[in-house]
Amino acid sequence: MFRDRHHAGKLLAEALRDRIVGGGWVVLGLPRGGVVVGAEVARALGLPLDVIVTRKIGAPGNPEYAIGAVDADGVVTLGAYPMADQSYVERAAEAEKAEIARRLAAYRRGRPPFDPAGAHAIVVDDGLATGLTMISAVEYLKRHGAARIVVAVPVSPPETARLLRVRADEVVTLAEPHDFFAVGAFYDDFAQTTDAEVIGLLDELTSADSGA
Questions:
Q1: Is 0.85 topped by the overall pTM?
Q2: Is the link from the previous residue into 32 a cis peptide, with omega within 30 of 0?
Q3: 5-53+116-210 CATH, one of 3.40.47.10, 3.40.50.2020, 3.30.565.10, 3.50.50.60
Q4: Which tens digits make up the pLDDT trace of 1-30?
Q5: What is the C-alpha separation between 35 and 133, in angstroms, rounded?
């Protein structure tokens, strides 16, 4: 369906164009792949790009399967079936919070942290599966006073999109297939995004926004 994340971002920008009314908008990408998609949205709509970092908590013995997520404040969001005891979740959350701090320091390169208060945020990822990292991001923005939160993704299972629609102000998707298996199945090229790519995009679009 999508050639790569750049292609998906351009299509997503067109779906968002008529929804962006007034000022105060910012595109927030979830690293790493969501930053690539978000960069195309930011370019097309003439908006600043920033990053919001949440981390998946994987199941015991199956780290790729998300049972929860944690944000930069250390607040944990659990799925409906956590499949782990509290001590496991606490240990995993601490480890992931350390990775969040590492990524924020690497990505910001001395820039001040993004302040969500009063912002109109478009939160972008390259797709949703369980949606837990996106839910964690939405709840973080709500706690920190964002004025409006629009979740924007190329692809999501219908049930995950429904979960987000009761939390965000709006959810924009390009596809909600019932035969969803994995996000990568909807991309011809779903190569892993690197930290260097994320840093380059943030440097480019932050500089462009500031007029530097």
A1: yes
A2: yes
A3: 3.40.50.2020
A4: 899 999 999 999 999 999 998 889 999 999
A5: 14
